[in-house]
Design goal:
The protein is of the alpha+beta class. The chain has a five-stranded antiparallel β-sheet with strand order 4-3-2-1-5, with no helix packed on it.
Length: about 140
Amino acid sequence: MEESSVSKLCRHMFELRDTQKPKPDVKAGTWAKVGYQNERFWCRVREVRVDGSLIGVVDNNLVYSLWRRGDAIVFQHSHVLEVTEPCDALTIRSLAASLGSFSEAALAWRDTREAGGVAVPARPGTWFVLPEDKYVYAYK
């Protein structure tokens, strides 16, 4: 069976989730990690369309694309590499309080999720871009 042109386009735009992994539960409000042009990033899902496509809002300025924080993008369930819910922010804040650093807390949270099989493993050579702690704590 020949692959459709839409399937080919989707395959080349966004990274596809490993089909051996369970399909994540995605709904409005969920944070979804997607990969585009060799860069993975979080989006807040704003809408799940009737056709199953997802509208997400990019959460940071990207390095390898023109998308910036606040831009809306459309992607498919097959592009969702992992998810997290807004309540997970409490876990990160708790870790930050005990570790004394938001950056250290974010990395510990990610490592714990990866060890538990919930997070997608980082690719070799991955750089984690984190905010400076002094600015993060200014938002408390």
